[in-house]
What does this fold into?
Amino acid sequence: MAQRFLSTYEVVKESVDLPSFMEGDLGIDIQWSSDRESCKCICPFHGDSDPSFSMRKHADGWGFHCFGCNSGGTVVEFFMKHYNLEREEALEQICERFEIGTDSQELLSAAIRALSRDVNTSGRLASMHRLAADECRTLLRSRVEDAALRKWVSNAFRRMNECLEDMDCDGLERICTEARRLK
Ligand SMILES: [Zn+2]
It folds into this structure.
């Protein structure tokens, strides 16, 4: 299963409201849309007269694009260009300025939280699988000459494997219940 943690870059771009920063800290006149999910302004990067610098709020943070000079990116690229910084310097300055905690302790505890969630799931999955398999074997032993039952059990084992692949604890529990009912 894919497990990913947010990088500093991702944390930063999700955390900073770029147009509000430009408006409040840089004194740039922002023309907001009525839902405040997008806006435009005079581009700070080229001799702009008509607002060609547009910004839009995405699920993972604000992005900008200038139709005049074709610059674009996130708050990180904005800082790099505006303050003439390298990427790492830009990240550092943004974290400091907006008090974004991305120190190793915080990233580490997020990683541990995610990890223990997975350990819990795989632990539960393993014990549910053991339980379902036991129920099926017991069922089979009780009526070993029953061909229809043998077929059901072999099918149940195939379903159990699918449940393991999908990490589907509830599916295993259902097989367990069905096996008990058939006894
Ligand atoms: Zn521009």
Notes: The mean pLDDT is 86. The radius of gyration is 28 Å. Residues 43, 45-46, 48, 53, 66, 68-69, 71 surround zinc ion (CB under 6 Å).
